[in-house]
Amino acid sequence: MDHPTSVQESHGYLDFSQEERTNIWQAIIATRPQEISKKEAEKRFKFPEDTEALEILMLGSPMYFDSKKLLELAIHQPEFAPKLTAELAKRGAYPEILTILEHHKYRRCFNSCVLELENMLEDNKDRDNILNYFYKEMSKSQNRSMQVFSEYMLSKPEAASRNLKNYQTLLGIDDKKLQTLLHGKSLLMIGGGLAPIKDSLKAKNIDCKITNIEPLLNADTSGNSDQAIAQDFYDVDLKSLGKFEEVWSANNSLPTYAWDPEQVKIFYKKSLQAVAQKGHLRILPVYDFLDSITPAMRLNRIPVNNMSKRCLDMIKQRPDLFRLIYFSTAPEKKMLAFKKSSMQGVDIEVIGNSDDIQDFLRTL
Ligand SMILES: C[S@@+](CC[C@H](N)C(=O)[O-])C[C@H]1O[C@@H](n2cnc3c(N)ncnc32)[C@H](O)[C@@H]1O
After folding, report:
1. What digits encode the pLDDT tens for the residues 273-305?
2. Are 66 and 30 found together in one domain?
3. Pocket of ligand 1 (CB under 6 A)
4. Residue 229 near residue 216 (C-beta atoms within 8 A)
5. Domain range enclosing 32
6. Which residues, including other chains, have CB under 8 Å from residue 87's CB and lie 6 or more apart?
7. pTM, rounded to two decimals
8. Segments of the chain scoring below 50 in pLDDT
């Protein structure tokens, strides 16, 4: 695909040549209702002389205007940008859309522009590729390092410190089941946060070896886990850690915050490889990821969610290797939006042997 279109024009804002005005004028007259004569239509319609009237005409009837002119308007009037993005998406004018997204990436209208783009592409079989194209182009100027993520996360530390009780509630694990699943066993937490999970298990007389791959963890991790790995999950050699009876990637860790669909695929491959036979990988949520850390990341929430569904569909096709149980969390009242939300999770029990699992994961 092409690069973003330049908004630099040799002439002024919404400056139309006489020829352009005539062409637009004729196009509008040509689409008059049958009962109105051409003469009457010519009398009624005049090409607007003042900019405000022209802007309103362009917003209401964008089909008469070329994509470059719509781009000019979308850049100058942020509140018009979403509707113009929809029109440009209908035309496949992706370089113009990219310019709009780049220009408005830190404005309130950005999310609405992305929503319009996503909706307009809904029936397009290439939707994920197109959205990923925007993600890739935009991420050229946006850092996607773990440091960016950690700064974002540390700005709301309560979201990274959910306690054991919270995990139990969301994963549907009562105290009795917790004892059975974890006592004398090993637990790998992926993005397990900062809460004193180890201490809370000890208080319940559960002796479990916890490994937590959590970039936010600092020096004092004794109450959190036995083995704290303060690294990006994608940089950790999981094979060197052995197998775990329980692997939890829960409460909005990965794949929620995967930067792109490829990372989602790697997440499934790596985490499933870490589960011992008859052990479980618990993921919550498995889709409907909405959070994004950068504007670029917002563009590929649909492709990332679709990749998670695709991986699960493939996993489901191997009942000889895996047993899947989907679950939903109880609706949680969101303080500000006054609406209730519930998350979809999955419990994947690994029933196949290690070699067969590995063969399968190569095909994912
Ligand atoms: C919303 S917090 C949830 C933390 C914890 N699960 C809890 O409930 O308190 C998301 C967590 O995912 C972790 N995370 C995101 N991407 C990660 C990655 N690539 N590798 C390891 N951890 C990651 C973050 O560091 C963060 O602690």
Report:
1. 999 999 999 999 999 998 899 999 999 999 999
2. yes
3. 149, 153, 159-162, 191-193, 195, 213-216, 232-234, 250-254, 257
4. no
5. 18-124
6. 62, 63, 70
7. 0.89
8. 1-10
